[in-house]
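Entry for the shared binder. Reason: the reviewer on the internal report wants the predicted structure included alongside the sequence.
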Amino acid sequence: MYMSFGRLPIMDVKTAYDVERMTSTFAIQHDMWPLDDIDPKKAKFPCCLVWTPLPVVSWLAPFIGHVGICREDGAILDFSGSNFVNIGEFAFGAAARYLQLDREKCCFPPNLAAHTCKHGYLHAECGTAITWDDALQSSVRYFEHKSYNLFTCNSHSFVANCLNRLCYGGSMNWNMINVAALILFKGRWIDIMSIIRSFLPFAVVLCFGLVLIGWPFLVGLFSFSLLLLGWFLLGTYCVKSLLET
């Protein structure tokens, strides 16, 4: 069979590509060393999302809070102020809820050909990483040049950016809404005191409002919550340039 010199058969090229991809994927998986145990007393939550209520805001709308994401060593990272990402200590108090994420659901491509997700070029454009901590560090550098705003660029924006760099769950569509939903619906309470700390201020405000003002206070509180939720839904799914992700 005729074969031009200096060129490999197509089957050999395909085989070499498959071998390289399998080797690269195995190398990345091999680097995923076992994580330490979660230790709330030391504020160590390896590869977790963590949530805590916000002062004043959570007293009026308890579903609104402050969220962070943790490195493999358990240290908490949270975007808590303009040009500042807090490392090691949660900005608004101890974590009340947490959700440990699975690193096996992330995409860590050493090169463009080794993506395990379906968003190769989009993922590369967003910014890829070869380890969990590498992705978080890239997001830290990015948000060190961002201005904090509760309504447009907050802690949820930072976590969504991290998850998009990780392509967690094969998705590049992480945003404020689905990050909040993930931790609120799948997160675990740390203890009973965390539940009390999260809802007691809201219950006190609600009772005082009903006693002093009556039902109009309840209507106003409900309207405030709807306005907040509507703003974030509008900025996330309708006018995407409003919110940072």
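Summary line for the report: The longest helix spans residues 215-238.
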